[in-house]
Specification:
Layout lengths: L1 H9 L1 H18 L1 H4 L33 H36 L3 H14 L3 H12 L3 H27 L3 H8 L4 H12 L1 H24 L11 H8 L7 H29 L8
Helix pairs in contact: 2-4, 2-12, 4-5, 4-7, 4-10, 5-7, 6-7, 7-10, 8-9, 10-11, 10-12, 11-12
Length: 280
């Protein structure tokens, strides 16, 4: 653990990502406390519409006269919750599928991976838009659409990792000692492939946030009464370039959030990958 922390501390890009993600998570958790105007994020204030950044509204106001900074903070809660639930659900589906398909060599293994490849054959964003459009715009439907299009990525990763180690000596020794298939999978294979899963999860959160923002931009995400970064950018289009601050704030938030998770993921990959790891 000490060596891992030292390697992470020496990785400037990973530290930068952590410095972005950490405050973002805190801002999302404490949004009701940090937001300058937490009670009027969905209330019309016609006299305050489209005001530029000022002391009273640090990031300006939107078309409803709401404080953009407040909506941005509450939007962080929506975006991170959506990404967290989606990635968690995709892990719960994709990891077991990949483990079972990778460990066994039978018709079920082939069927599971052919199903995953059917989903992977279509560009993920296109499939997510199609599912969300069919189900209708809502937060729950956006989570479902993203989950159904993301689980194959984890299934394919876990399948490949499981296949690469299932004939290792420690696996064969466990089988020779009478360990059941599920015991071998859960106690021997899963811990051995945990590192790539962790890295893929960190990077996947960033990708999920970007895709969720795309759904929100197209009106296929949470309802208009729910602050969400993609929808905020969509609403700002008709007021550009005069109200430039309207689109700038959520755009920068999406950029920094995706960048932060990607940097953390890259740092974890360099630290956890035994081929690149160096404790010296």
């Amino acid at each position: 653990m000490r060596g891992t922390l030292r390697r992470f501390a020496r990785d400037r890009a990973a530290l930068l990502g952590l410095c972005i993600v950490g405050p973002l998570l805190l801002a999302a958790v404490f949004a009701p406390v940090l937001a300058p105007h937490p009670n009027d994020i969905v209330v019309f204030h016609l006299e305050r519409r489209l005001l530029p950044p000022s002391a009273d509204a640090l990031l300006g106001t939107d078309r409803m006269g709401s404080d953009i900074l407040s909506r941005l903070l509450f939007g962080a809660r929506t975006t991170l919750m959506l990404a967290g639930v989606t990635v968690g659900a995709a892990l719960l589906i994709g990891v077991p599928v990949g483990l079972v398909a990778g460990y066994h060599s039978n018709w079920m293994s082939e069927a599971l991976m052919r199903l995953a490849e059917i989903f992977l054959a279509v560009p993920q964003i296109v499939l997510a838009i199609a599912i969300a459009q069919t189900l209708g715009p809502s937060l729950d439907n956006a989570v479902l659409a993203l989950t159904l299009t993301y689980w194959p990525f984890w299934a394919r990763l876990v399948y490949a990792e499981t296949r690469s180690i299932r004939n290792e000596v420690f696996i064969e020794s466990a089988i020779a000692l009478g360990a059941s298939a599920w015991r071998v999978i859960l106690l021997h294979i899963l811990p051995a492939i945990a590192s790539p899963i962790i890295v893929r999860t960190s990077i996947g959160i960033g990708a999920t946030i970007l895709t969720a923002a795309t759904l929100g931009f197209l009106g296929l995400g949470p309802p208009a009464t729910t602050p969400e970064w993609g929808r905020m950018i969509a609403e700002s289009r008709e007021y550009l370039p005069e109200a430039w601050w309207y689109a700038l704030a959520p755009g920068v938030a999406i950029f920094l959030t995706v960048l932060g998770f990607n940097l953390v993921g890259d740092g974890l990959r360099d630290i956890l990958d035994p081929k690149t790891r160096n404790d010296a």
